[in-house]
Amino acid sequence: MPPQLATLLEIQAIEQRLREVDAEIAALPRRVVEIESKLAGAQKARDQARAAQSGNASERRSVDGEIETLRAKVTKIRGHSSEVKTNQEYKALLDEIAFAEAQIGKHEERLLEIMEEAEALERRAAAADQELASQQAEVATESAAAAQRTAADRALRQQLAAERDRLRGQADERWLRRFDLVLRMRGQALAMVDREACAGCRVRLRPQFLQEMSTAPERLFVCESCGRILYLESEPVATPQP
Ligand SMILES: [Zn+2]
């Protein structure tokens, strides 16, 4: 293969690699956002666990208050027992006490349930805290890896660009102009001749054109259909015969 073509092929390969590195660099900020969004679920679970705990504590305060009120009521009724005059009044008073005590009993049962719920909620909150902490650690590791990757990509980009510029210095001006134009338009500036057709656009090449290509390998041949710079497949590498 003529050296001019070999150089352009190398430049094309580097341009391709640069596009990949640029795409990766561009995608990384989004990746970081994705990583951080994973925390939202764990944060929500933790907040919900905390809210359930505070709901439980507030119900407990309210039930405690009810019991206290009822107990005060019972004490007050008992205090009045010396003032009753008839059996009927006395019976009414006892009924009132019995009713209040039954209510106290119900509240105390609920209080036991609330305390059991509090234990379960405490375990749930601790688990949610732990999950959040472990996800935060994971996110920190992944974000650091992403930042490291970006730095490595930027370094690689610089290296590739320097190598490309070095190769461009060796390339023929006229070939480079055609190369740049087609690269911008089509992404690939060179196309191999494959089964007598341009591998870039698959249009068949005239036999006379192919004949010229093989007799004047140092000339610049361009696909008449897509404009890509054409090159003939390089000589197959001789394989040792058994
Ligand atoms: Zn073509």
Describe the protein.
Strand 1 (190-194) and strand 2 form a beta hairpin. It contains four helices and three strands, in the order αααββαβ. The chain folds into two domains: 3-170, Helix Hairpins (Orthogonal Bundle), CATH 1.10.287.1490; 174-231, no CATH class. Strands 2-1-3 form a three-stranded mixed β-sheet. The model is unreliable at 236-242 (pLDDT under 50). The protein has 242 residues and is mostly helical. Zinc ion (ZN) binds next to loops.
Q: What is the C-alpha radius of gyration, as a whole number of Å?
A: 42 Å
Q: Provide the β-strand percentage band.
A: under 5%
Order of helical and strand elements: HHHEEHE
Structurally, the number of domains stands at: 2
Q: Which geometry do the CA atoms define?
A: rod-shaped
> What name does the CATH topology of the largest domain carry?
Helix Hairpins
Query: Got a strand count?
Result: 3
